[in-house]
């Protein structure tokens, strides 16, 4: 398996819109063009786990086709790191998968979600496409209140951990473990951003964000590759520095 595909010769691995990037054996991600959001995929004998689904039904369908072209097993699970349009609205292309999301004070989204569709339109998505994508949203099959271990087969497991509310009301991270070892890869959603300052919108709970990153670091440890919602793959030191910057930015005292 090559480190990247889907891009032309000479494209930089991991750059926005440049094809799939292999982070560990059977663990890939792609930075989509447009909003530079990451979509991840983890393969196991039991099926493929997709992490986020892109900004529209069409983007989701394209991801599905790309994974099939790579010869990956069908997407059996879709973990949504948080219900912002750029990570969620492709989910309708995976309506036959089990959809997992973080529990919160209210449902993470609803079928036909007008708020999510409206955000997409405000960010430049065509209104008809946004509404079609929202109308196709599958209901979550399981909501993760704390932690859920998904066996992917062959000794590989994905641990889904709810760390919200912080960046959004429903922040879910996904750690990939092989044979009970330390996680090799952690998909962080937008709790971590590398390509710019982390975005805090109206659904963010900034006061809880630094503590969420403490839990993220405890989950991933020192050696995992941390995959941000936007930007290049980072390490534990980067996450620790971002935690300190967020605490300063939001005036959150230590401890
Ligand atoms: Zn977000």
From TrEMBL:
It comes from Streptomyces mimosae. One of its GO terms (molecular function) is hydrolase activity. Residues 1-22 are annotated as: Disordered. This is MBL fold metallo-hydrolase. Gene3D superfamilies: Ribonuclease Z/Hydroxyacylglutathione hydrolase-like. Residues 36-230 form the Metallo-beta-lactamase domain. Residues 1-11 have a biased composition (Gly residues). SMART domains: Lactamase_B. Coiled coil: none annotated.
